[in-house]
Design a protein that fits this description.
The protein contains 7 helices and no strands. By secondary structure, the chain is mostly helical. It comes from Algoriphagus namhaensis.
Length: 167
C-alpha cells in the first residue's frame, strides 16, 4: 500500500515540477539523477564508485544478474536509445533480453563504466538540445529509460549492500 502512494506522490511532484521548467530541463534532470546526480536514490556514478572487477562479477546461487551484467544491460539499452535519438538505426535486436546481460568482460570493467558514462552524458546533451516538438515525441521514452536505469541501479546498490561493499 505504501509503494503506490509513494509513486503517486512522486508523480504529482514531478508534474508540478514539469510545469515550472521546460520539458527539456525536466527530462535532462531525470536522466542526470540516474547518471551522476544523487537525488532520492544513488546515481549510477555513486553506485559503481570503488567497484572492483571481482565484485562486478560476483553472483549469488540464484539466477540473479551480477553487477557487471547489469552494467552491460544498461549500456545496451541506453546505447540503443542514444543511437535512435541521434537519428541512427540501432543494430538489429532479436528480442532476447537475456542476451543484453551477457557481454560483460572482467578485464573491461573500467571501459564498461566509461562507455555507459559517455552514452548517458550524450543522452543528456541531446535531450537538452531537442526542440519542443522533438522532446514531445521522446518524453515517454526518456521517462522510461530513467526509470529503467533507476531500477537497475537499485539492484546494484542492493548487491553491494548485501555483500558489505557499500559506502
Amino acid at each position: 500500500m505504501k509503494t503506490p502512494v509513494l509513486f503517486s506522490l512522486i508523480f504529482l511532484f514531478s508534474l508540478s515540477a514539469l510545469q515550472a521548467q521546460s520539458q527539456n530541463e525536466f527530462f535532462e534532470k531525470q536522466l542526470k539523477y540516474s547518471h551522476d546526480t544523487e537525488n532520492w536514490y544513488p546515481s549510477l556514478s555513486v553506485a559503481v564508485d570503488g567497484l572492483t572487477a571481482e565484485q562486478a562479477n560476483w553472483k549469488d546461487d540464484s539466477e540473479n544478474h551480477s553487477i557487471g551484467q547489469l552494467l552491460s544491460h544498461l549500456t545496451f539499452w541506453n546505447g540503443r536509445l542514444l543511437e535512435s535519438m541521434q537519428g541512427g538505426t540501432p543494430p538489429n535486436f532479436n528480442g532476447n533480453n537475456d542476451e543484453t546481460f551477457d557481454a560483460f568482460d572482467e578485464v573491461g570493467l573500467e571501459l564498461q563504466i566509461q562507455d555507459l558514462d559517455s552514452i548517458m552524458t550524450a543522452m543528456e546533451k541531446k535531450t537538452a538540445e531537442m526542440t519542443p516538438k522533438e522532446i514531445e515525441g521522446w518524453g515517454e521514452t526518456l521517462a522510461n529509460i530513467a526509470s529503467h536505469n533507476a531500477y537497475h541501479i537499485g539492484q546494484i546498490v542492493f548487491i553491494r549492500k548485501q555483500n558489505g561493499w557499500w559506502r
